[in-house]
From TrEMBL:
Function: Could be a nuclease involved in processing of the 5'-end of pre-16S rRNA.
Cellular component aspect of the GO annotation: cytosol
SUPFAM superfamilies per the UniProt record, alphabetical: Ribonuclease H-like
GO MF: hydrolase activity, acting on ester bonds; nuclease activity
Gene3D superfamilies assigned: YqgF/RNase H-like domain
Pfam families in the cross-refs: RuvX
Family: Belongs to the YqgF HJR family.
EC id: 3.1.-.-
EC main group: hydrolase
Official protein name in the record: Putative pre-16S rRNA nuclease
Gene: ruvX
Intracellular or extracellular location(s): Cytoplasm
Length: 138
């Protein structure tokens, strides 16, 4: 059984999956969503859960640097609740402070163009969220 990691934004959700042993995270894809229209990519996430036999979901929780939860964090909490109710799987909220900046730094160091970075940044952030969770368990 695999663990899924999600980096939730207002327009996209980055998706990562663990290997079957739960040691490493790999980026899978970026799902287009529209928060304003309540389109959250639930069908696509459900397909991934079935296809990869996902047993647990880790959702990045963007906290402010002082540890408080702002509007993006509240949106992630609501998304996590929706996932839990829809799929009946355990959903863990994982502190994701600085993961998007760290992902951006890795992609910059790889000398990736801005256009290419924009396409993969959310998927890369999902990998970092999931890998942080996996490392804390192993």
């Amino acid at each position: 059984m695999r663990t899924m990691g999600l980096d939730v934004g207002s327009k996209t959700v980055g998706v990562a999956l663990s290997d079957e042993l739960g040691w490493t995270a790999q980026g899978l894809e970026t799902i287009q969503i529209d928060e304003e229209k309540n389109v959250f990519g639930i069908d696509k996430i459900g397909t991934i859960i079935k296809e990869y036999e996902v047993s647990k979901i880790v959702v990045g929780l963007p906290k402010n640097m002082n540890g408080t939860i702002g509007p993006r964090g509240e949106a992630s909490q609501k998304f996590a609740d929706l996932l839990e109710k829809t799929f009946g799987l355990p959903v863990i909220l994982w502190d994701e402070r600085l993961t998007t900046m760290a992902a951006e730094r890795v992609l910059l160091e790889a000398d990736m163009s801005r256009k290419k970075r924009k396409k993969v940044i959310d998927k890369m952030a999902a990998v970092m969220i999931l890998q942080g969770f996996l490392d804390s368990k192993n």
